[in-house]
Structures are given as structure tokens and as C-alpha cells.
Amino acid sequence: MYKVIYIDRISDYAPNIASNIKDGDNYFTIGWGAGSARKFKEYNPDVIVECWKTDYKAEKIYEREIAGVIFKIFPALHIKHLGDYSFTLIKHLKIELKKNEKTIYHITSFRHLLFYSVAIRLKGKPLVVQNNGESTVRYKVKISKGIKKLFYLLQAGLERKSFKNIDILYILDERIKEYLPVTKATIKKQTLGIITERFSPLNKFEARQSLNLDPEQKYLLYVGKLNQTKNPDILIDIFKEIRKERNDIELLIVGTNDGDPLINYALEAGAKVYGRILHTEMFKYLSAADVYILPKYSIEHIFGGIGLLPVEALLCNTPVIGSSLENFPEHSRELVGLAVSEKDKMKEAIIKIIDKKIVLGNLRQIAIENYSWEKISRETAADYKKLLDKYYN
Fold first, then answer.
1. Residue 90 and which of 20, 118, 253, 256 are 20 to 30 A apart at CA?
2. 159 and 293, same structural domain?
3. Same domain for 144 and 33
4. For residues 123 and 391, is the Cβ–Cβ distance under 8 A?
């Protein structure tokens, strides 16, 4: 018997959620750490699992058990651009360390104050860290100038000290290795899992009818804000070129905000632009599309890995185009889409998939085989076992 404590922040994911226990389970279960904790518990019921999170709007500690996981939310001081520091969480951590029980500490994401404040206290304790696409201080120093560069340079010491205590580091993109501080950690490529039951595919005709789309047209799909994070302007430009050559292809853009800088550009190009939608409704759009496209991440976000949305598209039997596909397991990559990022090659890839000129595999099955929570939880448990053997014999 052992315990796993997942440590995460609530503020970055849900800044508008009031710090009130009356908000229900969602207040406790939102975020990467909470999702990982619940899924690990589901597939490892004999393990004690807790999830500790900070919320700078909370005025006291909240606690609730959900799906066998003990959730604890701690008040925190929020420092802009640095993140949360919680005196009460650190106090509870010190108490936990004094128990000297078999415990794995698992922090979701780094380069923020909560990570630094916890990791530097875990010397000689089993520490696992999951990268979720954020870059390191070393990388930020490289791409920044002026005051921003100085801001990141001032964090470098904290990052170096924290990384010395990591035993296992899960990353999303191999390229981040070049920018990691010195660490003895075992570095593995591993993402979060996918919620397969939420993305049960509809057939194309049914999905398009549900969205009032012409079932005879072909549809390209982009999901996200219309800013430069994923470079959607590349896709919009390609769509404008395609529309000059044929009129059977439409562009759907989902998940935008009214103030997005490229929203008028997309509308002028003739794209169908939808605002923000519930995650539980996303399967309809993914099912209706002929291809999901994530052009490429901006220089500030290049370590995002495959991303969850491309995998969710595969669950809905929709192939994927984009540079993030380079992070898909190589043995199956060509069966699920085309890993391209340059404009001309992307246009060519779109036509190939739309006109069914490439052979694809069983997209949903391939996605489940590589990214199911069952698989990821099983592999994570095996890694935890190695740490338990190392620290507790």
C-alpha cells in the first residue's frame, strides 16, 4: 500500500470559479492534476490517492472525497507572472514528510512558484513531474529580450535547484530536452490520457445534420482561439486559395473569443466561425469534419506535443494534419494523417485527405491503443513501483 499526492493549481484553469464549496464537485475536479488523480485511482483502486490544489481566491482549506480521491484546496498568495505560493499547503507538506510513509509526489507542470516551493522541499523523496507544454526558464531566456529576459534569468536558480530533486519527468516533445537544466531524472515522453467515452463518433451525415451543415460539402476543422498560438492564419490563407479552385470545401473554426485578433480575417475568408462550446459538444464538430488541422505552434508554445484535440479528433474517426503530429508514435503516424507545417505542403495534404488519396488506419482504435487512460495509468503505476523500490526498498 502506498500513497500518491498530485499537486496542481486551480487558478490558471478557472479564474472565474468562486472559492466556495457550494460550487460542487467541479470546483475540486477541474484541472490536469485532478483528472490524473481520478483516472489513476480508477485503474489502481488499492492506492491511496490525494489531489492538492491551490486557489488564490480561497479563504480557507476545502476538502472533499470524490471517486475515491481526497481533494484538498489550499488558500494561496498569487503573484502575477509567477503563480501561487501557499503557506498552508507547505505546512501540510511538512507534516506529510514527517510521517515518512510510502508516498509519491506528482506535480503537474513546472516553471511556476508552486512547483518551485514544493520541489525544493522534496530532496530525498520520490518526485514525479508532468510537463504539459510549458517551456523551461532556459528556453524563455533564449527567446526573450529586455525586462522579460531578466525576469526569467532571475528564476534560473530556482529552476536548477528544483530540477535536481526530480526522479521522473514526463515530457510532451523531445525538443525540450535541449533546454532542461541539469537533472538526474528519468525523462520519458508521456501525455495525459483521453476520455474515450466523451468522444464516441457520429457518422459524418448525422454529425453534419446536428450542426445544420450541408452533408454534401467537405469540412476542414480548426479548434482554438484566433490568435498566433497555433498560427491559424496559415490555414485561413490555404482555405482562401482552395476556394479559388473548388467550392466543395468549407472551413469550420470552433472555440473562438469575440476579441480574437484574426476573427475578422477568418470571417472575410468565408469561414464558419463558432464561439466557445462545451467540451462535451466537441465530438459533434470533430465527427462532422473530414480533417482536423492544427497548423503549428508559435515559438512560445513549441513544446505542446501532440495535444489532446488531435487525439480526440482521431477518436471521432477524423484524420489530423499539422506539425504536432510529429509527436505521434512513429509506427502509426502515417495511418492517422500527415505531419506537415509548411503552407504548400499543408495545402497538398488537405487535398490528399479530402480526395481520399492516402490510406488511413482505424483512427479511433489507434488513438485508444496509444493514449487511453488505462494504458497511461498502467505505465505510470510501473514507474511509481520503481521509485518505491528505490526509496523504500
1. 20
2. no
3. yes
4. no
